[in-house]
Amino acid sequence: MANIALVTANRIEVVESIEQMTLPAAETIVPGSPVRLDTTTGKFTNANATLAAEARIYGIATGTHSIVAGMPVTAVRRGVLDGYTFPQAYDAAIYLSDTDGTLADAAGTVSTVVGRVVPGASELLGGSFAKLLHVGL
Q: How far apart, in Å, are the Cα atoms of 82 and each of 16, 52, 55, 132?
């Protein structure tokens, strides 16, 4: 399993948001990280695929800088995001990684599909399409 990297550190752009929520962060969260609801505090915390409780992902954190504990973070539950480096083909599944706050190209311990790679047609006419993440939780 290989973890998915960002094109630019701490930067995720929202192409389309169908469902999202903004809550305080329970810990430092970087844009592009999968987050879950902390069942004790009601805040967002990083998600991972090591245990079923940790893999209850709500969505993907957005923004242009790291969010420290106590500050608000917006997570997209359903939508399209730009900012990842995807070597995968279009329509490839993207999974939750065993590494906290990270996505991967293969299933972790608890297999959790986060979304799929989709083409983004906003590039120059005749050029290659961008590879975007369609989040569909």
A: 10, 27, 22, 5
Length of the chain, in residues:
137
Structure-block tokens of residue 18: 């169908």
Task: Provide the number of structural domains found in the chain.
Answer: 1
What's the rounded Cα separation, in Å, for the pair 56 and 40? 14
Tokens of 76: 């997209």
Q: Give me the domain span that covers residue 43.
A: 5-136
Q: What is the pTM of this model?
A: 0.93
Residue 20, amino acid: Q
Reference 13, options 136, 132, 101, 137; nearest CA is 132
Task: From first to last of the 137 residues of the chain, give the pLDDT tens digit.
Answer: 789 999 888 899 999 999 999 999 999 999 999 999 999 999 999 999 999 999 999 999 999 999 999 999 999 999 999 999 999 999 999 999 999 999 999 999 999 999 999 998 765 666 778 899 999 97
Determine the residue type at 11.
R
Q: How far apart are CA 114 and CA 87, in angstroms?
A: 16
> In which residue are the tokens 């995720």 written?
12
